[in-house]
Request: fold
Amino acid sequence: MTAAETLSSKEGAKVEHFDVLIVGAGISGIGGAYHLTKQRPGTSFVVLEGLDSFGGTWWMHRYPGIRSDSDLHTFGYRFKPWTGVPIATADEILSYMGEVIEENDLAQYIRYNHRITSAKWSSEKNRWTIEATKKDTGETVHFTAGFLWMCQGYYRHSEGYTPEWPGMEDYQGQIIHPQTWPEDLDYSGKKVVVIGSGATTATLVPAIANDCEHVTVLQRSPTYFIPGRNRNDLAETLRELEVPEEWIHEIVRRQILQQGNVFTKRSFEEPEKVKSELLAGVRAHLPGDFDVETHFTPSYRPWRQRIAFVPDGDLFKGIAAGKASVVTDEIDRFTPAGIRTKSGEELEADIIVTATGFNLCVLGDIAFEIDGQPLDFAQTVGYRGMMFTGVPNMLWVFGYFRASWTLRADLLADFVCRLLAHMEAKGKKRVEVRLRPEDADMELKSWIDPENFNPGYLMRSMHLLPKRGDKPEWQHTQDYWREKDEIPAIDLDGPEFAYAP
Ligand SMILES: Cc1cc2nc3c(=O)[nH]c(=O)nc-3n(C[C@H](O)[C@H](O)[C@H](O)COP(=O)(O)OP(=O)(O)OC[C@H]3O[C@@H](n4cnc5c(N)ncnc54)[C@H](O)[C@@H]3O)c2cc1C
Reply:
């Protein structure tokens, strides 16, 4: 079926059918829509988005200063040049995505305010039935689709992760999670404590420090940062030479990817050297007597968690100016006036911001069923971190931790389009990955190796995720350099793919 068909459900309500249903209109879903129109013209598809606009992460997060932590030359799509400075604000990213939608006439495919609640596969019909609730009317609507392209991201959008601390109920001020930042929050002249040490803290603190009386960063343990100028010299030089933006985009991407590859390799091969370089970078932005050892020297080796780029060292400027300070300690309890740390320090706060991370959300909180049986993703094995044993006609876009997410979104979009073309050519309606005979005794482990990458949201929820095998086919290797060649070369007739008419 190539054009959208409208079928009737048992209840008589209209059920629209599409060849492909894309879940989510974030950077992955919009990219998916673009690639489908270019690589598979004639394929009918719809993008269902629970929010009332596109952008996902960049639409949802509204805290002051919200910006990317990786460069937009590689976080941008490979097909649309990024012409701004490397680190971009959420608004700039949204404008860029808006242009992609407009220039490629993609709005016609997107349905906003459609929160998908269930997805049921029928082997008899070889299709998914998707139930969604329309946020604006409360109406329940149904769709059917031949293929599900999961672009729902990886964390729960409705609420962030806030640990429970003793005494929280006694605290008299406001507790705010950055993910649900109130638009009218007045922090001017206030004492603010930001709990957490990650990219969100690094973004938020410089954005609010000047207006607050004081901002205290309270962290249990330090994080690595890379301070640097928010400018790409090569891009600027090429622009002065009037090189077309398409070329600049490609050249600068190659430069950044090559540098990223070297840095990642070095982080594994000579972690101590990389560590001391990173710390020297931070030290250069702080007063000579600042205790970098306590506050900015992580106990883990570089790249086991994302490293945030700090444009123009803005986080450190606030600290150097005395508008912000860092306390490295554990929370004993909340008090009516703020927080008491385990070493007995009292931190007064009118507002406490819990920049404590995400809740991992496995496949968009959608109740999946395969032929009437609830699907437990933890019982499946992931094929290259994108398809799952026993789950037909579905792919999940899960990007990279150490490189920009969108690099993988583009790669997987090519893969989906190639897979759909292959199925069409073979006259098959169903594809599923399965373990090969040589995989029968393969040891199955957690989705991500905690030795390799271990942020809190993954560690808290690993038991919900698919399993990983000991061969690259059954792992999300997190290695763009390997995947950029391997994924386009996947043999779709290999024994790990099972097709049915
Ligand atoms: C503050 C912040 C900064 C980040 N910065 C970077 C960065 O600089 N570089 C980088 O590589 N990565 C970064 N990331 C990771 C980032 O989330 C991804 O890179 C990328 O934006 C994810 O895009 P996505 O489209 O896959 O998912 P998302 O942006 O999460 O979008 C998913 C969309 O799916 C929708 N959806 C989910 N479930 C359902 C459902 N059941 N029904 C309907 N719709 C649904 C959501 O509403 C959402 O719009 C950052 C993350 C955060 C939170």
